[in-house]
Target: CRAL-TRIO domain-containing protein
Amino acid sequence: PRTGIQGSSPCLQLPADQVLNSGAVIFHGGFDQQGCPLVVFPAEEQSKLTTDLAKEDVVSFIKYFLYLHNKYQEKESLISVVLDLRQATLTAAKSIGEALLLLEQCKRTIKTIYVIQSKKKDVHKHLLKVLGLSPSKKYNSAPYKQCVLLKEVCELYNYIDRSQLTAALGGYLVYCHRSWVQFIKEIDAFVKEFFSVVHRLPS
Model:
């Protein structure tokens, strides 16, 4: 039987609490000017990508919430990704890059990647390799069709209205991650209970 918020895709389960609560990757409801939903890797939580989460966790998180977004749309949407790498460590940059490569392996999911670049040479060099913008023996990937490299966060506003960005990126979208997690879990529990009752009804 089909249970949970995933409906017709039983393989898509609500991510584990550790993944949801981490805040290392968020789907906060904002959109870029192309109309693509935004997936953001907040700078202040990037260390958790190397200690608490595997790249598979990041991929399952994005797939799940993109599925929910697309479920009632006439046309499936791709995502746009915002990477704030200004203070990122090389390890965190590697974790993000490898997660995005894994996400794209089975099916194209990303429309545009907006990168606020690091001033650290090793991070910048690695990023170019992962994105296919410079030669790499390890990352044999084609360049992303749209990759926007930004030197300053204010340049991001040419592509994403500030009303669609959180305060950490200079925007004014009100977003509380803890409240978002609580809401998502309550909705998931409600839908599971609904389907449980429906399946117990006589046919």
Remarks:
- Residues 177-200 form the longest helix (24 residues).
- The radius of gyration is 18 Å.
